[in-house]
Fold this protein.
Amino acid sequence: MERRPTIYDVAQAAGVAASTVSRAFARPGRVNAETAAKVFAAAQVLGYRSASLPGLTTTRTSTIALVVTDITNPFYGDIIRGAHEAAGELGYTVLLSHTQEDAQLEREWTERELQGVDGVLLTSSRMSDSAIRMMAKQKPVVVLNRRLPEVPNILIDNARGVRRAVEHLTELGHDSVTYVAGPESSWTDGTRWQAMREAAYELDIRLRRVGPCANPTLQAGFARARDIAEQQATAVIAYNDVVAIGVLKGLFRLGLRVPEDVSVIGFDNTLLAEITEPELTTVAAPLHAMGATGVRNLVGMIGGAVSSREPVVMPVKLVVRRSTAQRSRNRTSPALGTTNVPPSASAATSMESRST
């Protein structure tokens, strides 16, 4: 009987170590794309077959991976719904992953999923550019909320959203703005901060920053409230709605009123923005459409379409609610001891220390 080719035969034909062939089979994202291609080509010539070799798999699974950084963040709810609906219309199933704002976990989890899916939709990925590029060499990949020239991506018009938020505050008489930053690993956070600096310069207002918030949660926003009070800030723009609502609660505990003492703006226009008290002024983006567009573009790539490397930019608008108002000229800061602080302020300090 003719001997079946082994992993060592593939390694010799490809001119690499057997361990490299093994990694290419089991975890293609860990191997240089050119090396992986050589391994797959050699295996195909020799007739070697492995269930864990995506480079030789021709059978489609009609499944796509949707990777989100924090499933508890309502920002992702509309994206997930849009992606799920579009996938269903196209005959695809969505495999949802939650990576807890952890770049290493995101990479390991997504690499494991590569073998069982036809493509990957990454949302607000925390992975490095090189890791995403390598995955895109193995399977079709579309990235949401992240600019990466080599990979198809869909973005929110962050610059326009920030500009409208800052303009709104200046129209209300505010001459300074404090930004509550998100995760340092967030591409979106860096983009918004840069846009805010440009807007502040052009509109001649003072810009300050607190944070970053490694996990952009309600607790993180709550913990930043004292920093905001100590600055005697009159206007705040937060990384997202959840952080903004945490800021609202923290300022209330410190005896400050929103919007009478401090105006607060969020980002994303999630459901929470409408049910908080006061309702939150926020920058709205078509998140449902973003998820649906991402899936449609990804399925097109799976079918052989060549995607443009120019980003798809989704429009934004400022939704004005009751958390912003005309600047008060006579506010004083309770954090500096000039206003009576209610007994609950001590609870805020306690919660702040636990959240930091």
Q: What stands out?
A: The CA atoms of residues 128 and 276 lie 35 Å apart. The chain has 13 helices and twelve strands. The first strand starts at residue 63 and ends at 68. The radius of gyration is 24 Å.
